[in-house]
């Protein structure tokens, strides 16, 4: 087995992970090991696995990528795997969970910003402590640049569910299609009634598999420049999750494009998070939790 004996269960607003520290680079997991640990019946159960290690211990990174990590001040790397064993470019909730874990393990300062390497570049996480209404051990993540496609260019359906919605492509370092389902041309059920165990279908087909978000606008305060929304998500590689950090950011970007409002409190099944969008970047604010330390047999 290429796993350490000790791992930790963590989550960010219900988006849960098996995490561990690999100081020496000897514990790079296989896809089978990831699938086993993330299995909710035969393993520990998680949406993904995160190995915290040095950038030069990650076998799929090129020399140029490693150099970029180090130039960006990232001495530690979030080696994230989806529950099906596939590599993932980025996970916004995972960055918060692994940073809280890094603080406990003494490789991140509990009061200073932490520069974390990911396959989507270096992310900066700033501790915010306890912060209403987001919870305890809150971090603000600088998620970086984003790209948006043509608004409503895709039809989104769910096999077995009547109706459809229009979706917009967002590149957050990983691919998303965001559908605001109360738009005039949407005919899917309300957000709470969607069947997201079934993988949504996006047409025309996007070359890479993508996460799909379904969103409802709940309130807009134009004077304050803020809004509230509700979101559910089907993530590639693991199905519906209680929260998705990059999906929340993608949602905030689409809502900004449709309404002109840049600051959103978005509620997912795992809690409420803040998304702040500018032309240059997007910031995600939310809580992280360490649940248990586990010894593998």
Q: How is this structure best summarized?
A:
GO terms for molecular function: diaminopimelate epimerase activity. This protein is an alpha+beta fold.
Describe this structure in words.
The protein has 297 residues and is an alpha+beta fold. 15% of the residues lie in helices and 42% in strands. It has four helices and 19 strands. The longest helix has 15 residues, at 245-259. The model has no long low-confidence stretch (mean pLDDT 95).
Key features?
297 residues; alpha+beta; Diaminopimelate Epimerase, Chain A, domain 1; 19-stranded mixed beta sheet; 4 helices; 15% helix
Query: Mind summarizing the main beta sheet?
Result: 19 strands, mixed
For the CA atoms, what is the radius of gyration? 18 Å
What's the assembly state of these chains? Answer: single chain
For CATH, the homologous superfamily of the largest domain is named as Diaminopimelate Epimerase, Chain A, domain 1
**What is the arithmetic mean of pLDDT?**
95
Binding site for substrate: 15, 82, 92-93, 174, 211, 235-236, 245-246
InterPro entries: DAP_epimerase_AS, DAP_epimerase_DapF
Site (Could be important to modulate the pK values of the two catalytic cysteine residues): 176, 235
Keywords: Amino-acid biosynthesis, Cytoplasm, Isomerase, Lysine biosynthesis
């Amino acid at each position: 087995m290429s796993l350490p004996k000790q791992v930790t269960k963590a989550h960010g607003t219900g988006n849960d992970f098996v995490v561990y520290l690999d100081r020496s680079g000897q514990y790079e997991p296989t896809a089978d090991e990831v699938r086993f640990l993330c299995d909710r019946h035969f393993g520990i159960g998680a949406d993904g696995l995160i190995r915290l290690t040095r950038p030069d211990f990650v076998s799929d990174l090129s020399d140029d990528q490693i150099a970029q990590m180090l130039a960006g001040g990232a001495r530690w790397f979030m080696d994230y795997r989806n529950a099906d064993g596939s590599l993932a470019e980025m996970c916004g909730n995972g960055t918060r969970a692994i940073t809280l874990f890094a603080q406990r393990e003494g490789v991140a300062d509990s009061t200073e910003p932490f520069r974390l390497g990911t396959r989507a570049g270096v992310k900066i996480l700033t501790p915010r402590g306890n912060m209403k209404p987001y919870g305890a051990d809150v971090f603000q993540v600088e998620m970086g640049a984003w790209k948006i496609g043509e608004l409503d260019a895709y039809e989104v359906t769910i096999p077995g569910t009547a109706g459809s919605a229009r979706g917009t492509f967002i590149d957050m370092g990983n691919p998303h299609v965001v559908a605001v389902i109360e738009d005039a041309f949407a005919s899917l059920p309300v957000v709470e009634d969607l069947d997201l165990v079934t993988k949504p279908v996006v047409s025309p087909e996007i070359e890479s598999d993508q996460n799909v978000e379904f969103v409802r606008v709940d309130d807009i305060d134009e004077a304050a420049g803020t809004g509230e929304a509700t979101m559910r998500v089907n993530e590639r590689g693991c199905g519906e999750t209680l929260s998705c950090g990059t999906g929340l950011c993608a949602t905030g970007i689409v809502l900004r494009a449709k309404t002109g409002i840049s600051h959103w409190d978005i509620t997912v099944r795992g809690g409420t998070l803040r998304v702040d969008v500018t032309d240059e970047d997007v910031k995600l604010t939310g809580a992280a939790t360490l649940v248990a330390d586990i010894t593998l047999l």
